[in-house]
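Q: HAL protein kinase, please. Structure only.
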Amino acid sequence: MASEPPPLPTRTSSGFSILAKIRSHKDSKHSSPGIEHVRRSTSYDSNSSPPAKSSPFSSPALEGSGVKSRRLSVDPRDDFVVSVCSLDEEFVSASKIGRRKEIGKGASSTVKIMQRKGGKKTEGTTLYAVKEFRKRSSRETEEEYIRKVKSEYTIAKSLNHPNIVQTVRLCTSNGRWNHVMEYCQQGELFSLMERKYLKAADRNCIFKQVLRGVEYLHSHGIAHRDIKLENLLMTDDGYIKITDFGVSEVFCGDHPGVASSRGRCGQGMGNPRRSAPGIVGSRPYISPEVLSRDRQYDPTELDVWACGILFMTMTLGGNPWQSASKEEVNYARFLEGWMAFLDRIGDTPIDENCHPQCGPMFNALPSDSVRRCILKMLHPDPERRCTIGDALNDRWVRVIECCSREDTDSTVEAIDVAKTGCHMVAARMKVQPKHDHLPPPIKRLPQHSFSMGDGTSRYD
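A: Structure for HAL protein kinase:
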């Protein structure tokens, strides 16, 4: 049986504090690496101005990749088809039923809990998270700003998968735009990690759920480009939900916001488009080819890299590095291990008997099978990096027990008690999961940051 990974982190004022840091390499040029403390990071695009230092909110990317995506951002002839309502006409604050009004607040916006008007004021009422969109920046016109709001909303609204947050409505209130979405009761994974309740089976299940959600996005022509702990929410049923599409990319097919798509993603799929050079995402999770800013890149490979970093962060209790650059000691050692491996074996694929030796952090992963899968996802050459589909088909990932259904078409096979000889017993049977990663009940509502896109990753 695989040994347990290092202890999970304890809470400090700046984020996670590693109880058991990985020992430094004896080589003096790689002295005192350690795992980086996890701090909240805002995502950003290099084309946009950073947010105020005290704000956890930021701006979405200015434009997508490819001629059509860029044209959609600036050409008024291709208007987005969006139904907009007044927030106060359809929704009312959940404080009316004794719930707290706000569940997240930053310098530029808030996230509130609301319910539909006319609903019964009971504990069973469906609740929604309402994210107030950030204010227009000084670098964009009102028309550009509105198109970005509608672009993010229509992408999110077109998605239908158990591991992606359901988007409900686009509303206006007091001159601000609001996205109404599914309310995930347990809050974001970053905050849940701070509570130190996850075991190995739980982390593996969460990882597999994220891979399923990202695979759905890629198969429908959308790259998220900002997978991180803060953009993953959990429901009371243990489902992991990907949220925040402020920097997402329609890399293939029609944008879900144009009339020809009829509000559906994955329409008109053809040749994929590459993203223009420029940093997008949150620095600890950004792949090296994106950080280089010297070439067009495949945005799906950025998501693959980010998912690999996500698993490392959950398992080791901290970011392996704050940036995939040679100036970072841990990344330098990781890259040195990869270069030595590639010099020795060339194009030979990673297998049971052959994989890079990338330092003590990777040696601390639970098993060789886990290490091989994650290293395939973290190949420094994006052309040779595995796809999300490859990761899901990895032998280790395939056998991970997952407590959520696989896709929107999945059904549960029921027991036909009429055809059994012990129907009384069968009728009382309940299928129990072998693991339960739900945290203990809490009296306070979870906090959501919903960082919305663009700005530099800050480490105070």
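A: Brief note, in case it's useful. The longest helix spans residues 200-219.
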